[in-house]
Amino acid sequence: MTRGPKPTPRNLRLVRGTDRADRMNPDEPVVAVSIPDAPDYLEPDEQTIFLDTAGKLARMRVMTEYDVDALAIYSVNFVRWKEATARLHDMGLMVRSPNNFPMQNPYLSVANSAQKECLRILTEFGLTPSSRTRVNKG
Question: What would the pLDDT profile of 72-124 be if each residue is shown by its tens digit?
Fold first, then answer.
C-alpha cells in the first residue's frame, strides 16, 4: 500500500501549473485531449450528461479518450441521483414499511450513494469548487 496522496495525471498537473521536471514520471503516457463519443450503453439522459461534461473537461484540457469509463460512471450516477432525489421530493424522507411502521425512504440511500460517487469523480476531474482552485488557465 502506498502512502501519501495519489498521483495526479500530468495533464491535470500542467493545467494546475504544478508540473515539475524533478517530479515527472518519464514513462507516463501522453494522451491528446479529445471529446469522445458517449458510449452506446448509456441511456439518452446519461449520454447528455456525458457529452456536456466531456465538453467542459475538454475546455479545461483534461478530457481524453481514456477517461470515457470514469465519465460514463459519473453520468450514470448523476442520473441515478437526480431520479432518486425527485422520488424523495415526491414521497418525503420517511415512508411506511409493509408493516405500517415509519422508516427512512430507501431512495435516500440511493441518492446519497450516487451523490458520493459523483463528487468523487468530479474531484478527480477538477470540477468541484475546491479542486478547481488548484487548476490554472493555460
Answer: 999 999 999 999 999 999 999 999 999 999 999 999 999 999 999 999 999 88
Predicted pLDDT of residue 127: 83
Q: How far is 84 from 46, CA to CA, in rounded Å?
A: 15
List the chain domain ranges.
Answer: 10-132
Q: Which residues are paired to 96 by β-bridges?
A: 102
Cell of residue 111, nine digits = 441518492
Q: What is the C-alpha to C-alpha distance for residues 130 and 35, in angstroms, rounded to an integer?
A: 24
Q: What share of the chain is helix, strand, coil (3-state, %, to 5)?
A: 55, 5, 40
Phi and psi at 40, nearest 5°, equal: -65, -25
- Helices (H), ranges, 6-128: 10-16, 44-59, 68-91, 106-125
For residue 98, the Cα-to-chain-centroid distance in whole angstroms is: 36
Q: Dihedral sign for Cα 52, 58, 62, 64, please.
A: positive
Report the alpha-carbon distance of residue 21 to residue 51 in Å, rounded: 33
Q: Do 125 and 11 contact (CB within 8 A), yes or no?
A: no
DSSP SS3 for 95? strand
